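Much of our argument rests on the idea that a fold can be written as discrete symbols. The amino acid sequence and the backbone structure tokens for this protein are reproduced below:

___
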Amino acid sequence: MTKTQISCSNPQAQLALITQQKAQLERLSILLDEAFVIPLLGVRIGWDAIIGLLPVVGDGAGAILSSYFVYKAVRFRLPMRTIMRMIFNIGFELIIGLLPLVGDVLDVAWKANRRNYRLIERHFQGQERELRATLQQEGLLDGALGANANIEKLGTNHQTLDAGLAIMIIALLSLCSLLAYWLMGYLDLEFIH
């Protein structure tokens, strides 16, 4: 088992935890990026785009919500390269959101939360295949998804460190948002929300 996997000695519980976490993150990414359909256009938007319409605070609030995916990636010990891609996705969406109208349209098109969910999902695909193969060999695959009894005990060893890192990332993204607004105001650029 590599250090980037969810650690657990029970393959059934490990597979159940991965399935549970992926489902939770998928629901959140859909809620934030694709919860509603704009009538006549057929374009899907989520709460992230709606919150982003609020001047000044909307894009920062959206980045804070989006950073939950980074928190989970850190907690699951995904490779730093993947975490940096996730931070880039959120930062790009934050910066383009500064532009009125054009930024909001690009924000809807970019869908950082869906992108970040797919990065997490891709990371766990290989791990799921290995676990399913192990469980099939042991004849335990049928009950694999029912092993939820000990899931809440898994992955708690590094919660304090992970929470601190997530708070630092959120603070950094918020600071970047405020700095960008201040810089645009300082340069007397009038195309801000």
